[in-house]
From TrEMBL:
Keywords: Plasmid, Signal. Residues 1-21 form the signal peptide. It comes from the Bacteria. It comes from Azospirillum brasilense. Pfam families: MlaC. This is Hopanoid biosynthesis protein HpnM.
Length: 206
């Protein structure tokens, strides 16, 4: 799926248009958000190389994910329209499960370290007052892996809404497609169960 698909979902009105500060003043804050996430990812990789258990790495990484990502906005899009149609306790449970599964995926994907580094290589405006920040995961002797972060403003800071692998493959659009069968079959409660079960499988017995 392309970046345009995720942006089309947003343009369809599933999220409100955020209030946008002047770009010149907010861009450093967007880069700071991505830089904090990058450092946490590198810490995950180093901790895995030191054989720290997966559940311990998740507990350390989860607060960073909650702070740098706008997970509620992402889940509102990925689980639309079921998220907004559900009662507040169900939404909270789903959001907790979504955060846990999302953090577990990072623990699983970034599970080794061999001197890699992550560099912010550029930024560009995106529709609806948002911003794309491009990063490269640099590996010795290999082609860098491009990850682009779609951020939306929140007051005087920016938070990540979507991640584009190779600059084009939208995590948010993929999640929206992935969640629909479960949501149609059992609503938000069924999605919560699936997300928690998936996190448990990822973490295994660690």
């Amino acid at each position: 799926m392309r970046a345009a698909l995720a942006l089309a979902v947003l343009a369809a009105g599933l999220l409100p248009v955020p209030a946008v500060a002047q770009q010149a003043g907010t861009t450093p804050a967007a880069r700071a958000t991505v830089a904090r996430l990058n450092e946490a990812i590198l810490s995950l990789m180093r901790e895995a190389a030191g054989r720290e258990p997966a559940r311990a790495r998740l507990q350390r990484f989860l607060p960073v994910m909650l702070d740098t990502f706008d997970l509620e906005a992402a889940l509102r899009v990925a689980a639309a329209p079921y998220f907004d149609q559900s009662a507040e306790p169900e939404r909270r449970q789903a959001l907790d499960a979504f955060a846990r599964r999302s953090a577990a995926q990072y623990v699983d994907r970034f599970d080794s370290y061999d001197g890699q580094r992550i560099e912010i290589v550029g930024e560009r405006p995106a529709p609806r007052g948002m911003l794309l920040v491009d990063t490269d995961l640099v590996r010795a002797g290999k082609t860098p892996v491009r990850l682009s972060y779609l951020l939306r403003p929140e007051g005087d800071r920016w938070r990540i809404l979507d991640v584009l692998a190779k600059g084009t493959v939208s995590q948010l659009a993929t999640q929206r497609s992935e969640f629909q069968n479960t949501l149609r079959g059992g609503g938000l409660a069924a999605l919560t169960r699936d997300l928690n079960s998936n996190a448990d499988r990822i973490l295994g017995g660690a």
